[in-house]
Amino acid sequence: MRLLFVSSAEHFGGTERWASMAIAELERRGHQIWMACPDKPHAENFTLPERLWHEGPKSMWDRAGMDRMAGFCRDQQIDCIIPLSQKMYFTCGRLARQLGIALVLRLGIVRLPWRPVVDWYGYGIYPDAIIVNTQRIKQVLSRAPFVKRDRIHVIYNGIVERPAGGVANQPEKFTITSVGTLSWRKGMEHLIKAVALLPDGLRKKVHIKLIGEGPARGKLTSLAQRLDLAAQVEFTGHVENPTAHIAASDLFVLLSAQEGISNALLEAMNCAVPAYTTLVGGHGEFVEHGRNAYAARSRRPSQVAADLAGIMSDHNIGAVGAAGRDTVRDRFSMTAMGDRLEEVLKLAAKGPTGKPAGPDR
Predict the structure, then answer these.
(1) Which residue pairs from 96-100 have beta carbons closer than 8 angstroms and sit at least 24 positions apart in sequence?
(2) Which residue from 83, 102, 183, 326 could staple onto 348, CB 3.0 to 4.6 Å apart?
(3) What is the reported pLDDT for 361?
(4) What is the pLDDT of residues 135-171, one digit of tens each?
(5) DSSP β-ladder status, 174-179 and 251-254
(6) Which of 89, 148, 323 is nearest to 81 (CA)?
(7) Where are the alpha helices (DSSP H) in the chain?
(8) Interval 22-61: pLDDT, tens
């Protein structure tokens, strides 16, 4: 198949990381794939940078950009468009219907569509299939009366085995790593505040490593300074291979308010690093508190501090990390993800009736 993924993200986050892995797996299986995306955050993160295209629409009102994308799809004989962000669903849907090709949405976060007309068409009328990565997202999405439940397909994220060498551990420190776009949704401020509340002996041992870039970096830096933790909070910026940092840490923390299933969480568990996470999105579908990870009951700094103190003194922490690795390797393989992606994309290209997708089906 000839596929066009479409991203409007200005930062290379979890959805874009999923796309890079999905594209690599589909290319390995012989499909031809292009990515329409902004230039800077994506250029170095895909296996075939020459397949990146940067002249698509910037919004649903960008008529010139839509015309350019229509021409690109005709020139490359695209079979299916796969938009990765909500603000591109309607635009790409109109374009796919105009060209008579398939549209497959990819939604990686729990969201109930509500906007009149735009979401009715974007989620309900235009798509031949919707890919989500948790049962929880499917349940919420199915509540919208215009979304066809039988077109929602759950495909769990796959994990790529990557070398983790290159970052040394600090045995005298307890290193806590968190990975993601530096935004308030990810909850990194709650982690910093919680560490400040730890008993003196534990607080002085902690080294926080925040991996990623984003709009909240300045405020997070100021917060660490205000709480006298500036020397203990490290901002690495964007890292090509965060696995190296994750593998060298003692605990991975994700305090997101909203997720699908976090790729970074799966990578940490795959490295046998104990993980402490909120049970948002699909995390509750595989996290078993105290057995293969630790569940955050609240994002309140006082509760997080109490949980961290307990985790740091848990003699079973190594076994929790090992069980997390087994969970990921059993349930989140790239082969399984690739098989399901191919199945859904081929079904979408045929249309819901089994006929080739097109505007008059």
Answers:
(1) 96/126, 96/357, 97/126, 97/359, 98/70, 98/359, 99/70, 99/73, 99/74, 100/357, 100/358, 100/359, 100/360
(2) 102
(3) 36
(4) 999 999 999 999 999 999 999 988 876 655 556 566 7
(5) parallel
(6) 89
(7) 14-28, 63-76, 86-99, 118-119, 135-141, 188-196, 200-203, 217-226, 243-247, 263-270, 301-312, 317-331, 334-350
(8) 999 999 999 999 999 877 666 666 667 778 898 988 888 8
Tokens of 118: 């735009």
CA pseudo-torsion sign 39, 45, 46, 50: positive
Handedness of CA 63, 65, 68, 72 (dihedral sign): negative
What is the rounded CA–CA span in Å between residue 67 and residue 289?
Answer: 51
Nearest one of 325, 340, 279, 326 to 132, comparing CA atoms: 340
Which of residues 240 and 133 earns the better pLDDT score?
Answer: 133
174-179 and 152-154 beta bridge pairing: unpaired
Number of helices (H) and strands (E) in the chain: give both, helices first: 13, 13
